[in-house]
Amino acid sequence: MIEFKPATIRSWSMLGSRGTFGMTLLELAHDDARIVALSGDLCKSSGLDRFSTTYPDRFINTGIAEQNLVGVAAGLAASGFVPFATSFPNFLTLRAAEQVRLNLGYMQENVKLVGLASGLATGMFGATHHGIEELAMLRSVSNIAIFSPADCTATVKMTQAALAYDGPVYLRLTGGMRAPIVYKEDFELIPGKAITLRDGNDVAIIATGSMVHVALTTAGHLADRGIDAAVIDMHTLKPLDEAVIAAQLGKKLLVTMEEHSMIGGLGSAVAEYVGGQAQRPKQLTIGIPQGYPHAGDYGWMLEQSGLTAEQTTARIMDALQ
Amino acid sequence: MTQKIQDAARRIRNRIISVAHHAPSDGVHVSPALSMTDILSTLYGVVMQYDAQNITCHDRDVFILSKGHAALGLYATLCEFGIISEAQLNEFEINGSVLQVHPTKHPEYGIDFSGGSLAQGLSFATGLALGRRLKGERWQTYVLVGDGECNEGAIWECAFMAAHHKVDNLTLIVDRNGLQSDGFTQDVMQMDLDALWRACQWETLVCDGHDIEALQAAFSAPHHGKPKVIIANTVKGKGVSFMENNKEFHRNRVSAQQLTDALAELNGGQHD
């Protein structure tokens, strides 16, 4: 039984999303024998060390072979298990794109893909490891739900939700260790139902993953400048909560914020919906511009991509001119 | 028993040719279906345990066709063994039919995997076998790939992994017919499959893929604690001389005259 106590939430934050995921899966596996975990030689990086020793039969290392990893996970799902298949997002989804499409999209096997350290969290590793395009690929594949928790508390919630969800899921883990806390206590999370964290009449900021905390800080900066900004945690990118977006169409500006390429992620998803509406505000898409920034630490990488709260505040102020 | 399986294989080949002739499209993968017919007849006729009238029951052996372009051979086999009806088989390639060029997962028809994108069936079958072992179930998983399909890297990712995890409730059959889309496999991509599978630490057997007794012996041979691969030497287009080893029939139309000629040769005066 996972308890959402303030001290526990702080310890999850220290672990970061990967460690929190590993801890959560270990807890869930205690009560649900259907859970198996798969790793492509990234057990330690995925926070699954304790899982692998506690449940050695239910931990499968496929070696460095992600195409096979996804296919084997699908076969396990077909035999009644709920596999959590983990790796860095590019290897799990882009390298194994055909396997993901066939086994999860087409055949709808009940596999949970877990993209570790998505976005720029592996900063110093360089562009090979930056997970900044996988949403563009996954969003185009039918039948896969996409979960994107805003912090470690939400990571626990969304791991539970992925287990409960009947069908393939991609769980996108962003942020580093000592992750900022958005949810300080237990909260209700319903897949597909975005959470409005802050009301505001002038601007609506729709953010996902690690950028939700940045969006809240940005909204604070905007308030100091007399601009009233709403902040929405779009924790499920697919199916997208269109109703909550529809309610924002009267604002002066719609902003999306994500740690992903500006092409194909949350900004695109929102634009695809908003573009079909008769009356709509201007949209500002904040994400990672085209190109592969040089490697650096996580904070520096965010700054290089224009994703700090100071930078996003300035861009929103410009857009409002 | 051998004669019974041979008769079943002959009827399956009849169906493959007839359905290919009547299919509405401009071509059908005929010869890849014919090369694996004796293997599937043996599997469905004597090797696998299943209830044709209750094919969605979890308690059964499973067959996965990875070389999905040979789907007509699977469909004709499912028909021969009473899992689908003649009427269902005759819906092959009709718009909206379950029975497409490549198989689509459809449990009620006994189709457990969507094939067509090559080299994906082996990983799926390995996962299935691992799951069954984890549950302590005795059911076996069989998967068939083509020799050309073994060009794909995903095959070898799984080859190492299945051996490492000693998945000994898994049997892979390589339908080694020596031809792939662009020609003879030795010309397109030379691969010593016997040596490769042995090097991957699989229980490796080689047999004549048209010899029912040899196939039965290979299927019943022990796994020795390993995944087992049966490299079945076959002839693409087997049973119809003008299709055998003929690249033109990888995918082609079967004309009325070719249908007549093929059936005459297959049946040799026999009637069911």
UniProtKB/TrEMBL annotation, chain A:
<dbReference type="InterPro" id="IPR051157">
    <property type="entry name" value="PDH/Transketolase"/>
</dbReference>
<keyword id="KW-0786">Thiamine pyrophosphate</keyword>
<dbReference type="InterPro" id="IPR033248">
    <property type="entry name" value="Transketolase_C"/>
</dbReference>
<dbReference type="InterPro" id="IPR009014">
    <property type="entry name" value="Transketo_C/PFOR_II"/>
</dbReference>
<dbReference type="Pfam" id="PF02780">
    <property type="entry name" value="Transketolase_C"/>
</dbReference>
<protein>
    <submittedName>
        <fullName>Transketolase C-terminal domain-containing protein</fullName>
    </submittedName>
</protein>
<dbReference type="InterPro" id="IPR005475">
    <property type="entry name" value="Transketolase-like_Pyr-bd"/>
</dbReference>
<dbReference type="InterPro" id="IPR029061">
    <property type="entry name" value="THDP-binding"/>
</dbReference>
<dbReference type="Pfam" id="PF02779">
    <property type="entry name" value="Transket_pyr"/>
</dbReference>
<feature type="domain" description="Transketolase-like pyrimidine-binding">
    <location>
        <begin position="15"/>
        <end position="181"/>
    </location>
</feature>
UniProtKB/TrEMBL annotation, chain B:
<keyword id="KW-0786">Thiamine pyrophosphate</keyword>
<dbReference type="InterPro" id="IPR029061">
    <property type="entry name" value="THDP-binding"/>
</dbReference>
<dbReference type="Pfam" id="PF00456">
    <property type="entry name" value="Transketolase_N"/>
</dbReference>
<dbReference type="InterPro" id="IPR005474">
    <property type="entry name" value="Transketolase_N"/>
</dbReference>
<protein>
    <submittedName>
        <fullName>Transketolase</fullName>
    </submittedName>
</protein>
<comment type="similarity">
    <text>Belongs to the transketolase family.</text>
</comment>
<feature type="domain" description="Transketolase N-terminal">
    <location>
        <begin position="15"/>
        <end position="259"/>
    </location>
</feature>
